[in-house]
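Q: How would the C-alpha cells look for this protein?
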Amino acid sequence: QVQLVESGGGLVQAGGSLRLSCAASERTFSAYNMAWFRQAAGKEREFVAAITRSGRSTGYADSVQGRFTVSRDDTNNTVYLQMNSLKPEDTAVYYCAAGLRLLDYWGQGTQVTVSS
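A: Here is the predicted structure in C-alpha cell form.
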C-alpha cells in the first residue's frame, strides 16, 4: 500500500507561483509512474501532469502546458509540481497519484487558491 501526502498548497495572487510536493511512503517509489490531477468546486477531477517512472517522459494538460512543470526526486520519494503564472482558473484541490500501470494510489489533496 502506497501512501501519498501532498503539501505546498495555499493562497496566491494571479501571476504568482507555488510548488506542490507529494511524498510517498513506498521505498520502491522509483518503480511508480506519478501524476497530478485537480478538482475545482463543482467540477470533475481532471488530469494536470504526469511523469514516468524513469523521469524521462512527462505530459501535461493543454491548460497548464508551458506554465507547470512536473519532476521527481527518487532519493526522497517525492514528486513535485512547479506552478508558475497561476490563474484564477487554476484554483482547485490538487491530488497526486501513483501506479505501476494504472493509478491505484491517491493522496488526500492540497488546496490551491489563486486570487484575481
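The mean pLDDT is 96.

The longest strand covers residues 92-99.

Upvote if useful.
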